[in-house]
Each structure stands twice: as structure tokens, then as C-alpha cells.
Amino acid sequence: MSSKQLPVALSVHALSAHDQFDVSDITFEGASWLASAGSDPQSTLALWHERPEAPIVLPCGDAFDVVNVPAIFGRRMLDRLWDEGPGSGPIAAYRGRMLLFAAPGTAQRLPSLLAWEEWAGRCRGVPPLLCYGRGDAVTVPPLVPGPSASTRLDCRWLVAPGTRNPWLPGPEVLLWAGVRAARETAERPGAAPARAAAGDGREPATAPRISIFLPPTRVLRSSTSAGAASSVG
């Protein structure tokens, strides 16, 4: 953990970064990146110093966007990102859902890409992806787990941020991961095949495919961790 001192405005605490964020799942650099999403990063760091077990609400749109997906489907997306794709950015679990931190602008672009791919018709039974961008806010998990077991499970980091500039997936990467996860769901034993509407002359729907987006070139996986939080409002 870094031994450098806190920002000048917080130096009154006379603590090193290691002292302030002595936790295994998130680094001082990762906490600083999260804090940069707000209008007053130093105040956010000060609040975390006083209450490291408390979640905090941060705005989307500048440092990151967030894509909110059901936990099981999100796990399949995450598997695809790490097994076949470029890796992931920070990721958090929040109240039975998974929050994927994404590049700014993803919330605006991803829905139109999904619609273009005829997401609803080709991936029946797959829940929609909820996108939070500029003008939205999300609840970020605490730096350290709270005392309650239910709290730890409801709001926690799965991949915690570890650098000041973590790699974040963009809309095309998440589209690719979503379609691959939907294909995996459709191909699982016992999955009901999607059917075309009676009398429309179309062939029954098959496993979804991507028509123009190839799997992203593998790059060094982000050591940043990830998770993020998601509660709007």
C-alpha cells in the first residue's frame, strides 16, 4: 500500500494513505479514483476516513458510468469478459444485482446498440440492462464491510478499484459480453428455445449472435478491481 501522504486538505488527520485505507479489497488509489467522480473529492475521502464502513452515493458521467444487471446474468457476462475478452473494470454487488463500472458515455450508447441488435426479440427471457450515466447517481459499497452479515452480502465489492486510472469497458465490449452471456443462457440444458410468432414466416430464433462487433482484442487485464455500486436515488 502506498506510504505517501494524504492530499493537503486532509493532512490535518496526519495519516498516510496506508493508515487511512488499511483494507484488503480496495487501495488508496482506487478510493481516490472513486472520489474523483464527485464535485469535492477531498470531502469524500474525509468522509471515508471517518466512516469507512458506510456506503456513499456518487454521480455518474465523468469518472464512470454504471451498467446494472441481474446477478446471475452479470456473472455470465463477467465470465465472458475474463475468459474470452479484455477483462473488466471495477464491479460491485448491490441488493441482488451486479454493477459494472463502464467508460463514460456507455449509458447513452449501449441502449441503442442493444436495440440495433434486436435485443428483446433475439434474447427472450434475458432481463434488460439498466444504464446509469450523466445525471444519475449510484451507491458505492463501503471501503470495509459493515458489521451485519446481510449488509456485507447486499453491498460489497466483487472487483475493487485498485488504481487512479482503471481500464473501463465501453458499450461495444459490454454488448459483446451481453450477447455471449445470452447465448450461453439459451444453450444451457433445459432452456426453452425462443420461437417466432405464429404465421410470420420466420425461422425460429436461434442463439443470439453479434453481426458487426467482433470479440475485443485481448489486452492486459485491469489490475484495478472493480465493483461498483448501484442504487439510484
Description:
The chain has 233 residues and is an alpha+beta fold. It has a domain at 55-187. It has eight helices and seven strands. A five-stranded antiparallel sheet has the order 5-2-4-3-7. Strands 1-6 form a two-stranded antiparallel ribbon. A hairpin with a 2-residue loop joins strand 3 (91-94) and strand 4 (97-102). Helix 2 crosses helix 3 (41-50), helix 4 (71-83) crosses helix 8 (171-187) and helix 5 packs across helix 8. The longest helix has 17 residues, at 171-187. The radius of gyration is 19 Å and the shape is globular. It starts with 16 loop residues before the first helix and ends in a 46-residue tail after the last helix. Residues 1-24 and 193-233 have low confidence and may be disordered.
Fraction of residues in β-strands: 5-15%
- Residue share in helix: 25-40%
Class based on secondary structure composition and strand pairing: alpha+beta
Biggest β-sheet description:
5 strands, antiparallel
General form: globular
User: Strands across the major sheet, in which order?
Assistant: 5-2-4-3-7
Helix count from the secondary structure assignment: 8
Poorly predicted runs are 1-24, 193-233
Rg (C-alpha, Å): 19 Å
Q: What is the straight-line distance between the termini?
A: 33 Å
Mean pLDDT: 73
Q: Helix-strand pattern, N to C?
A: HHHEEHEEHHEEHEH
Secondary structure: number of strands = 7
